[in-house]
Amino acid sequence: MANGEPYAGDVDPQAAWQALSEDPEAVLVDVRTDAEWRFVGIPDLSPLGKQAALVEWVSYPGLGRNPGFVEQVRAAGVGEGQSVYLICRSGQRSRDAAIALTAAGFARCLNVSEGFEGPMDEAAHRGSIAGWKARGLPWRQS
After folding, report:
1. What residue numbers bound the domain in which 53 lies?
2. Which stretches of 7-139 are DSSP H helices?
3. For residue 109, what are the contacts with CB-CB under 8 A and spacing of at least 6?
4. What is the CATH number of the domain that holds 57?
5. 3 within domain boundaries
6. Is residue 103 one of the residues assigned to a domain?
7. pLDDT of the chain along its 142 residues, tens only?
């Protein structure tokens, strides 16, 4: 890739939201675990008339890599020509997923670098200093 990375690059949550709002074909894939979606929450793209595709990169509780990840992303309706924004808790799993999708032929995969909750603060809590939630972007909890 032009940036020296094996995927299209990193964007912060606000830039991802902006791109998702401006590009009707852009999609957000949340690669966290089912437990995270249920208990922590998910990005709410309903103000944009969209919803995030939920596809685990690793599966809880064993945290083994999901061998069907690429096929499940395709089954969620994500096409190789779309801009694909990938998000996890803090940006590492989504980076790995962006690399895998790029290797599988997806043309423009971007990692949401701060993730949904961001890094831990000085009290070892997530969600207060960076990430989708801390930046005040729409999200919901079940």
Report:
1. 9-84+92-136
2. 13-22, 34-39, 69-75, 92-103
3. 7, 8, 84, 86, 97, 98, 99, 101, 102
4. 3.40.250.10
5. no
6. yes
7. 556 779 999 999 999 999 999 999 999 999 999 999 999 999 999 999 999 999 999 987 787 999 999 999 999 999 999 999 999 999 999 999 999 999 999 999 999 999 999 888 888 877 778 899 999 999 999 7
Number of CB atoms found within 10 A of residue 138's CB: 13
| 52, part of any domain | yes
Question: What is the number of domains present in the chain?
Answer: 1
Query: Distance (Å, rounded) from C-alpha 28 to C-alpha 67?
Result: 20
Distance of CA 105 to the CA centre of its chain: 18
Q: How far apart are CA 84 and CA 106, in angstroms?
A: 8
Question: Are the beta carbons of 6 and 99 closer than 8 angstroms?
Answer: yes
